[in-house]
Each structure stands twice: as structure tokens, then as C-alpha cells.
Amino acid sequence: MHPAPLHIINSLAPASINKTPEESSGMTAIVDCNSFYCSCERLFRPDLDKQPVVVLSNNDGCIISRTDEAKKLGVGMAAPYYQNREIIEKNKVAVFSSNYNLYGDLSMRVMDTLRHLVGEDRVEVYSVDEAFLNLSMIPFNKMQEVCKQIKDTVELWTGIKVSVGAGPSKVLSKVANRLSKKDKEGSQGVWVLNSEESIRFALQKTSVEDIWGVGRQYAVKLRNLCINDGWQLRNMPEEWARKNMGGVVGTRLIRELKGLPCIPMKDPLETKKMIATTRMFGKPVFEWTDIREAVATYTSRAAEKLRRQFYAAGYISVFLVTNGRRDEKYIYNPQSRHRYTILPIASSDTHELIRHAIPLAEMLYEPGLKYLKAGVMLGSLVPDNSVQANLFTEGNPHAHHKLMEAIDNINFSQRDDAVKYAASGLKRNWKMRQELRSKRFTTRWDELYEIK
DNA sequence: TCTGGGGTCCTAGGACCC
DNA sequence: TCTGGGGTCCTAGGACCC
Fold it and tell me: How many Å from the CA of A365 to C1' of C15?
């Protein structure tokens, strides 16, 4: 049975300067799915419940999700698969190629649950497995309870385990979330920073490189200055951060650590800035025909994404990544080159986009080079229904809409590329490897989960 | 021979995130 | 032999303007 919705919204006072435990806290929470891709796989393989599981990146190259059991065995995050093969085989770790159809669908269910619980306009989907919640209206003394309730409901409704962290700013909520994951038993999956003492304790327990916004470069810089934990970083002067940590980005980070929110919640209606489809080739390719097929196919994929979100693109950019001359011995030294063009009129039509993409690729292609990767990026996005007609362009930009819709429907419900453009090719020498993919249990009729 | 100051817009590239 | 893919934001610096 489903628990009743939380009705959090109505029961609360408007935001105000908070002093007493009963007043609204102004706090932010982040809900983060535990080992998300692995959890999705486990959902349809209950036999793997306590077993180590990993999920691989496209091309089966890197490990991009690990369960706690796999972490304990020493499997590294973002580590190349082949380097961990020995540990994986010796310990019978279950290995999956990534199955984005499945993960995307389960992600949607988690996000829908959150929106149902706290209200649509209080949820910012930050990534496929994370969302910020604006819980500003929840009083301090109710925070723990509310977060626990959110966690339990998501788990009950979707079967995906999550961790919740809450604090006065986004950065602090991320700090809290990390601690809740590190101590799942003790924290029960919820960690709330709602006092100066709790913030100090949490920051002292968090190394600088584990702070959201501190990447490899800044971590080295900070460590060299003997700034080792979050508390020390918080006490650095803002001016220093402005000079040494990327300008306003740095000062914002310091303020967020002090509990002053500087990174606002994003409006869910904001339009995206770009859509891209980029891939490593399954094996290096040399021929123009292969490059052309790949670029046409990636353009088709990107155009599908575009239409699914009701955008049209005003800018298209193509890039190729090479690895030097054909006769040189193999050294991994990728060189990227790109070209772009501004479309005379924003479009979401696959045919039109391919027509512009191929000549760009042709200008980039140089015979004799070894190509590792290609990509297509669409930018200057506008809502599809408001495409500005260009006075000097003939034709109706909506003419292809019906055709596109029909193709998308067939490809989504049958199989990818059941219908495709001739330029996408038939040979597909460049197609990525995906040898260990599970079924698309929730989005394909012919791959539904079977109960015997 | 002399050679300002202030502003905008654009792009490439760096750093970060999951 | 084998190292992913898809994003965001910010800054510096060049081109151009008056």
C-alpha cells in the first residue's frame, strides 16, 4: 500500500529569518540514488541483491557504477574495465554494459515520486540519479523526519534505494549526503546539517577533494597549501578564492560552505543550451564512408533528443578525434578538431541537420589518419513552436514534423533505427561494443520482464 | 613623431559536475 | 589490445566601436 502524500506544502509558514526550531529552515536537500545504474540492474535480478555488481560505460570501456560490495573488493570508479578484469573475474562480480533506456525510465519514476511528495516547483533534477529539493518551508525540528519520509517513500514506490542530505546551501547538502552514504547503518540514509556544530563536524570530516566544486586541479592547489578539509577551506578569505579558484566560482563556494546559499534552484522550464551525441568508435576507423555514416547516425540521434524535448537547433557543430598518423605506433594521444555552422533557420529535422553535418565532417576529414571518436553538437536551442522564419528562406519549417514524429514512434517502440536515413549506412564498422547489456525491461514490448 | 579610455560582443578553452 | 558520454559556467583575450 502507498503511504499518504506528505502534504508538506500547506502546513508551513512562509520563509523568514529562522531562529526557533519551529520556524521554516530555508534548507535545501539533495536526494541521490545509491549506485544508481547497479540498483537498476538489481531490480530485475534480485539474485544479485547482496552480490557485487558493476556497470560499464559505452563501448564497455570504463566502470561507471559500482555497488558497495564491488567497492570493497577494490574496484575503482571510472577505472578502465580491463585493468579490473582480474578482480572482477576472481570474485564473480556481475558485469553489465550500460542500458540507458532502462536507467532513464527508472530515473523518471524516482523524479515523479519526488515531485509528487514536495511539489513540482520544488524539485530540480540535477542529473539522472540526483535531485535538489527546496525544503525551505520545513522547520528545523521537522527536517530529519521529513527527509526520512521522502527516502522511505521513494524506495517503496520505485524500488531504488536513495540517500538524503540536507543543509542551508546546496554545497552543504552535498556534504551531508556524502556522509549519509558513508555511514548507511548509522545515518539510516539521512544526514541533516541544521546547526553550526553539525556543520563544523561534517566539514572537518570531509576532505577538500570530496567537496562539490573542488576538482582535481583545485584539490592539488589546496593540498599544497595545507588546506586539507572542508572546514579549513571554509575559513579561507573570499578574496583568495576569487584569485585562485576560478573567480566568482571560488567565492561562491566559500560562501556556500559558510551556509550562505549562492547557487539558486534552477527553473525547471529553463531551456537547455546544447544537445550532443558523441561516441568512441568500437574500433578505430580510417575511411571517409565510415566517418560519414557515423556522423549521420549521431546527427539522427541528436535530432531525436531535440524533438523529444521540443527544441529546434540554430547551430550545429561536428568534431572528429584522431590519434595521429596511420603508420605511427600506437600511443594514446587524441587530437580533436571541430567545425560548426549556423543554420539559416533553426531546425529539428533530421534530414536538414544531416545535410549540414556531412559537409562539416568532410572538411575535417583527412585521409590516412586514424579516427577514434566523432560527435555532433546542437546549440542555440529554441522551443520548436517558435522558430523564427527567415525572410530569405523558402519552405515551411514544419513540413517535416509529421514525418519525424512517425519515424520517432517506430524507432522508439520497435528498435533503434528500424527506420533511418540512407546516409547512416548499413555496414557500421564503427559501432560501439555493448556485449553485456541487460534487457530494456520497461521500455520495449519485446523485452518485458517475464515471470515464469 | 605622436599613439586614450571605456565599452560590448564573441569565441576558445579551462574547470567542474555526474 | 582495451580508458564514456553529456552537460554547465566562467574567464581571458581579440575584434570592434566611439
Answer: 30
